[in-house]
Amino acid sequence: MKRLDNILIIGIGNNTRQDDGLGWCFLDNLLKEGYNEENLVYKYQLMVEDAELIAEYDTVIFVDACISELKNGFEIDRIYPAEKVAFSTHEVPPNQILNLCENIYNKNPKAFMIKIQGYFWDIEIGLSEKATENLKKSIEDFKLSRL
Amino acid sequence: MNKKKIVIEPVTRVEGHGKVTIKMDENGKVENAFLHIVEFRGFEKFIQGHPYWEAPVLVQRLCGICPVSHHIAAAKAIDQLVGINPENLTPTATKLRKLLHYGQVFQSHSLHFFYLASPDILFGVNAPAEQRNIVAVAQADKELAKKGILMRKFGQEIIKALAGKKIHGILAVPGGVHKTFTKEEREYFLDGKQIPNIDTMIEWSKEIIDFMKNYHFENAQWIDNFAAYPSNHLSLVHKETGAMELYDGDLRSIDFEGNELLNIPDTEYRNHFKEAVEPWSYLKFPYMTKFGREKGWNRVGPLARMNTCTHIPTPFAEIERQVFKGYTQNKPNNMTMHTHWARLIEMLHCAELIKDLLLDDDLMGTDLVTQGTPRNKGIGIIEAPRGTLIHEYHTDDKGLITKCNLIVSTTHNNEAMNRGVRAVANEVLSEKPEITEPMLNQVEMAIRAYDPCLSCATHALGQMPLIVQLEDNLGNIIDEKIR
Predict the structure, then answer these.
(1) Which of A40, A110, B197, B355 is least crowded, fewest Cβ atoms below 10 Å from its Cβ?
(2) Using CA atoms, how far apart are residues B172 and B179, in angstroms rounded to an integer?
(3) Where is Mg(2+) bound in this sequence (chain B) (predicted)?
């Protein structure tokens, strides 16, 4: 088993909406490769209580599908606490969760956002061909990056 | 001065996407105001043709906030399709479903109070927009924010323990449940070793009610009058005692003075309700047939439940209900902003109910499913966090769904929310020389009090920033604000 130590990886998405499942598929691949399951969390959306969840880790990585065009089909960015606030609890951005974590729990885990470009979002299970390619590239890069 | 139209889109700190338009005449007086639900929901249609046992799993996809409510309402309807009435379920199955339901109401009410409502309460309606959010709450009152998160988490953990996961899990099956509760699962919620225990939840719920009562005391003039208007009130009540009942009961409606308008078995709802449509919203307008579209609409949810029930069958919440009722000399409370107070009393009630169930050994029983003689029609009604939730399914002889009707809580409150928007728009915006952002926030507050789940009523996709546009009577945009 490949230990993630004190790293939490949160896959965000919905695998019944085609490429919106990219975040989950990223985790599925890590699981197949033997990464430890307890550090991989599948979520439809982030919620306020995730501030408590991430407070227990040194590093947190959010993985989500992205509708915008990305240079290599994916992007890995360092992210920081921000005061951007979503208008509904259905959509809470990662940097808002980081902000809550910092304010409430005085913890500031190192955080990254892996965005993977998707193309199709209909009610269907399975990634598109291009999204699958982007997924593979993002996983390879993730493994090399030593986040 | 030309006529103006103000658009608030989307309405913020509510669950889902909505839009408000306010039309003003040449003198800046509000002519009319509407809450539009602008997305289309197709669940009633596309579930047709699916086997009935899929319904409790499929329909909970309506929402990421209250999937449990849809799961349970659908399950109650599906029980009837396999010939089982609520009273025929085994004690273990009934109690496990109730525990799931109370966990859902507890977490949903926590989320609404701390995340959506508390910024207005802590900072006031005139605070800058950038301050009216959970991040600012966390900065201003760390302990309050922490309690909010842990209370929400407690409810979510109950859901996870029973349904396998926090969102879109499964507990109910036709005629019962598919799993029981273990001693280890029970201890997790009782011993306080890994998460604050149920006694702590009860104590924190009491503290937050005290906080709200102080807020009412200090802001009585405003909170009593803001978006207050007479209405009917509808909810389930206990069949024999008339007590507050969230899982199964009779439907009772009273008018604004307390006169009883309706008291029927829930399965007879169709004989007493109709749904009207308006061209400017995808959300229907339910009303009691006997009283017509204009007079037959109801409010539902915490305020309505507090008005329709005779008492609350848990001790601490009943004490708080008596204080609440004392405020209006035991008459129905029609003050919209008191909904927040009522919601917190229900949160305490659910915490007490959860404790009672956790101490009940029936939870760990093994008699989980009851069989019956199949029927072709099932109706499941519960009190969801936001109010009365109705699911109805019809099947053919192969068990495939031929017809589905869903009346979600937010739909019942459609007329009430529209009246609230009009009342506040008139009060706050009419004949004012300048329209400010805090003024528009007050319009949203009239909606927010109902904690509407517009995602349940529709299904939304995409990112929508808040856009406020001022248009003249020719439709030209003369001012625009985006946040």
Answers:
(1) A110
(2) 9
(3) 44, 406, 459
